[in-house]
Amino acid sequence: MLETLPPPVWVNTTQLLRQMLDDLASQSRLAVDTESNSLHAFREQVCLVQISSAQEDYLIDPLVLKDLSALAPIFSNPKVEKIFHAAEYDLICLRRDFGFSFANLFDTMHAARVLGYPAVGLDTLLKEKFQIQTDKRHQKANWAARPLTKEQIHYARLDTHYLFNLRDVLEKELFENERLDFAKEDFVRACFFDEQKQKSNGESWERFSNRKDLTIRDLTILASLCKWRDVEAEKLNRPVYKVVVDDTLILMSKNPPERKVDLSALGLSERQIHLWGEAILTAVRHGVSAPLVKRKQVENPSDAYLRRMEKIKLWRKKMGMEMGVESDVILPKPYVSALAENPPKDMEDLAQLMKESPTRVEKYGAQILKTLGVKHAN
């Protein structure tokens, strides 16, 4: 499928946005992708939205067009299929930055996973199916930088241009392998996936709170250092790891430095010491004398819960090996936890618990009940 492609349409004015919307309004399906700057900014944001129709490839610049609300009805319209590759991350970003909601998705990466493909990256699939070569070097580019290079623009448009063809090939394979219903149910659940995984808004140090190698005083010093690092990273608009990496902060919390010379021994560069040495020492001193932080209390699951969890995981791993897929294709993670926490009493109970995936209930319901030790599970 080697071909010379016409230039994509760069959408950075309200007039071009309206022209694009006129085209999209007549489409029954669209291909969508996003590019963000997570490796280059304190707060990640969507820096490019790619949408392909049957006629054009569009690259929308949200750094110029602040209001993309006109796209909302398209994303939420169940009559328009939106094709993504690895939809979860894009949906989270689009919901976070623009408040979009979604209906009628087809995720080509998940389709490949349901089919048991050993490698499901877009570059691998495009090369295998259509002999299309993409340049992965641009995955980590700073997409907030302007102007984008010709190579970046070409890379971005390839992320959506061939998704129609890939989607059709994979749908045919899903149908032939009697796995299409599995995938369709997962596409429906994917529309709400990020809603089920909302991150807590705790302080940044709390993600280290369950480390057994840190005392409460160590954690208190680490909390002070994390707070300093967050402020500095936000001021510089860069990711926190580009100020000081986690391992160095942890090392400082365990071995509190008292002088600048100590910072070098703990792994800080001369530049870091020059820029932030005094501020780091101040943060450490504050942590040494501050009231102790409190670890988050994590409820220990019951032995019965852990036994059920282990049984379900062993069963789905066995079934995954038989079907040639990853175990979470057999039974997605949310169902594993729900079944272990509230084991169903019968098939009706199971059908209610897994109401978003009746295909799995029909195919595996009896085995799931038997695995959980429910009597008369046939």
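The record above closes out task 2.4. Task 2.5 opens with a second protein, given below.
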Amino acid sequence: MLFMVVERFRNQDAKPIYQRLKDKGRMMPEGLAFVQSWVSADLSRCFQLMECDEPALFQSWISEWSDLVEFEVVPVCEGKETAAALAGQL
């Protein structure tokens, strides 16, 4: 299952996040997979596409970063899957 994770950097400060990432890595539990990320131009947010079958795994990962980041985790699916699911109603 895919999830879009919106990270809001506390105090709009990306430097401590990148320092921890450099020092400790992503600190993700096995079963939670990073796919891709994008950072807003003002360095205040990051958008990460993640994949996992056990949404509870996010709790462990978020606990490692919650002092620096505020998280929103949104289950998502590809547009083509949505189009197929709605095809009979169009």
